Amino acid sequence: MKQFAKLLLAAMLPTALAAQQMQSIFIYSPSPKDGLHIARYDGNAWTDMGQVCASDYGNWGSEKRMYAPSVARAKDGSWRLVFQVNDRAPLFAAAYSRDLITWRPQDYPQVSTSNCLKPVVFLTDEGAFDIYYQSAQGKRYVSATADFRRFATDEASQISDDAWIRDTATIANVLREGNLFEVSTTEVEKLLHHFKRQAIDSRVSAERMHNDFERKWNAEGGTIQATLTVGRQEKAISDKLIGIFFEDISYAADGGLYAELIQNRDFEYSAADRKEWTATTAWHATRPIRVDTANPLSANNPHYAVIHADTLWNDGWDGIAINAGEHYDFSLFLNNRGQKKSFVVQLMGTDGKVLASTKLKTKPDNNWQQVKAVLTAKATDAKCSLMLTATGGAEVAIDMVSLFPQQTFKNRKNGLRRDLAETIAALKPKFVRFPGGCMSHGDGLENIYHWNETIGPLQDRRPDRNIWHYHQTRGLGFYEYFQFCEDIGAEPLPVLAAGVPCQNSNANTKGIGGQQGGIPMSQMKNYIQELLNLIEWANGDPATSRWAKMRADAGHPEPFNLKYIGIGNEDIISTAFEERYEMIARAIRERYPDIKICGTVGPFHTPSADYIEGWDFTRRNPDLQYMVDEHYYESTGWFMHHRDYYDNYDRNSAKVYLGEWAASTKEKRPNVETALAEALYLTDIERNGDIVEMTSYAPMLCKDGHANWNPDMIYFSNTDVRTTPAYEVQRLFSLNSGDRYVASALSGVPANMKHRVGASVVRDSKTGRNALKLVNALPWPMTVNIVGINIPTSAQAEGFSGQPTERKLTVKAAEAGQSVTLPPYSFRVIAW
Ligand code: AHR
């Protein structure tokens, strides 16, 4: 074990700094939720400069806390940070920074003790680090490598309690504990510059449209006279810019796009899904329903109900909506234990009237059997119940009670709700990312989405809890996702975990939350094989591949032609992530070199630590990703003031998939303002369509009364589907996309308004169709004279305008021509 020595501050100074003018800084945490702050001393007093990083450990509710941070400086001038995450977890947080501003995504080294309190870090003479902590099992010691990537197993320590004596400083009249350092004036200036830029960024990002009338524009009123000069320069851009991201969030799958009308059809709901749920949730009966597991229909579906001559009814998802004259497929698995048993199946309307009815007879059998019937609705009702009455005295076990409209999307069995699927299909998305973001990497290791558990007979699919606090039947599984992609002509983009669960995961039984160290290395081989099997299942030859045969047996002998696979979802780019991502990507590369791998660069845009580390990792490993998935949900002001975001991206690096994005206001609903901000940004995305390969708005679907997230692109209930302004922008860009970008420049707009106007010209080289988009997010009309390109009289235009806060808009035909006037707050597409 290394010897502890409390070094004098001056002795800790990197030699390069020794000759420079020095200033004192104090690194501390004002409170566990406030993360790491820096204060500077101006000769008289300490002043807080701001926050440089925060805890990224565990869930968003009670976790994400930083206790007792301890900082050390490395010999090369870089920084190391350790802190306690709570008083229960057997781990501590560790981070690294070159400049005190960007802190490498945190690692959470695990220790052998039951908890890990007040870790403190010291530089060793050799340039590595000693970490000491306190625990229920006494004082312990961990050594760390200089790069802070490797942490040895902890051992007992006799270190003196002096190791925990902290420096102090009085900041805003409060005495704080922390670490005091002497740093160069240049370093302090960099910090000041950073905080100044941050303040400017938050100020401009707060810009909104609804209060435009209060703003001083210095050039008010009248019509803005602009000229759009279209040049001769063209470049190739992605022909897949607009796609969709489907996540089972806010009841998007069960109770949503998946057309099953019975809730908890498999009696598999449990408190793991939601505290108050049981195996009989959504079911009612004249007497308590007995649930058994002794002789299940499938090991993956252990629970079933046992009834006598009872009547059971099911509420569906907030009721069962039916339409007069339509047919509904009912099916049920039962085990009558060799006794004669029959059933009456009815749909009971809101007013208690029977709206559909049928009888079912069963063969006496000691095995499970499936019985089916068709119910025809006599009337339309938005809130029916399904009633199932068993006759005869003997007990009968029932499971997988299902009711499906025959009219699904493309009339597929086990299909999708037609109105929702058609609304999605009308976007003509070029790709579909599925099955989710957080839902895909899951709440802890046990909840990682395993695609192979979602295919095959419905009763054999393994249901699971949904990270968004409900249940996944997996009736909408990988087969159905791929089929949907094919049905709407979109490329499938499955995204699966990079061997780590969501960084916001709750703690497991050992008290370990967050990424939980990732899938243990001993299990990574199997996990990698699981991902390789997906490619085989989707693309393989049923004659030679067991996995491809499963696809064929399910009804799709032809390959699905999978071209892309996403590995990871906005993961924190920790060491655990990087190691596992690399293993997975190498294996895919080696076995399926043509598959385009999509990596991930964390949940936020630049300058977030994950984004920086993620892109560094991408550049260090250019063969491991064809593109990387960026995510950012931002204010309308942010989008309007970051229009050049992709302009300087390295064209020789990986492509970008902007996999989750949306503009929002405090109201958290799509409106004309958010739609215009998104339209502006999309004109810039088209300009950068040579580096940005794909984009998808998120989230896509939200069922009324079950929102996990707002804003969303499409809201729905059991009976209606409501598109939003965000939807219209996505649709107009998708239907008017191209694969060539034609250079253009908008002039004549005053400098302080430029971020509010946008234009983009694209051409589809296959059809020869041109599309010009114009956005005016100003409170005044704007006339645009178009030069350099001839707008034929046959050109057609459509678009919308409205007040920023309006949530409903109508896309209407509009004026096309060489000179057009856009109303205030409007968007127009002219195509020819
Ligand atoms: O889109 C909603 C969530 O946002 C996704 O699950 C996750 O990837 C992101 O944080």
Q: Describe it for me?
A:
The protein has 12 helices and 45 strands. With 832 residues, it is an alpha+beta fold.
Mean pLDDT: 96
Distance between the termini: 75 Å
Tally of extended strands?
45
Which overall shape is indicated by the principal axes computed on the Cα atoms?
globular
Class from helix and strand fractions: alpha+beta
Low-confidence stretches: 1-13
Largest sheet: 9 strands, mixed
Query: Rg from C-alpha positions?
Result: 30 Å
Order of adjacent strands in the largest pleated sheet? 43-42-45-40-39-38-13-41-44
Work out the helix count: 12
- The percentage helix is 10-25%
Small ligands present: alpha-L-arabinofuranose
Strand content: 25-35%
Give a quick summary of the entry.
With 832 residues, the chain is an alpha+beta fold.
Topology (SSEs and partners):
Blueprint: H1 15-18, E1 22-28, E2 36-41, E3 46-53, E4 67-73, E5 79-84, E6 93-97, E7 117-123, E8 129-134, E9 140-144, E10 155-156, E11 167-171, E12 174-184, H2 185-205, E13 224-236, E14 244-245, E15 283-285, E16 290-292, E17 304-307, E18 311-314, E19 320-322, E20 327-335, E21 341-348, E22 354-362, E23 369-376, E24 381-391, E25 396-405, H3 418-425, E26 431-434, H4 438-441, E27 464-466, E28 470-472, H5 478-488, E29 491-496, H6 521-539, H7 546-553, E30 564-567, H8 575-591, E31 596-600, H9 609-620, E32 627-635, H10 636-641, E33 655-664, H11 672-687, E34 692-697, E35 701-703, E36 714-716, E37 721-723, H12 725-735, E38 740-747, E39 757-763, E40 770-776, E41 782-787, E42 796-801, E43 812-814, E44 819-822, E45 826-831
Parallel strand pairs: 13-41, 14-26, 26-29, 29-30, 30-31, 31-32, 32-33, 33-34, 35-36
Antiparallel strand pairs: 1-2, 1-12, 2-3, 4-5, 5-6, 7-8, 8-9, 9-10, 11-12, 13-38, 15-18, 16-17, 17-25, 18-24, 19-24, 20-23, 20-25, 21-22, 21-24, 27-28, 36-37, 38-39, 39-40, 40-45, 41-44, 42-43, 42-45
Bound molecules: alpha-L-arabinofuranose.
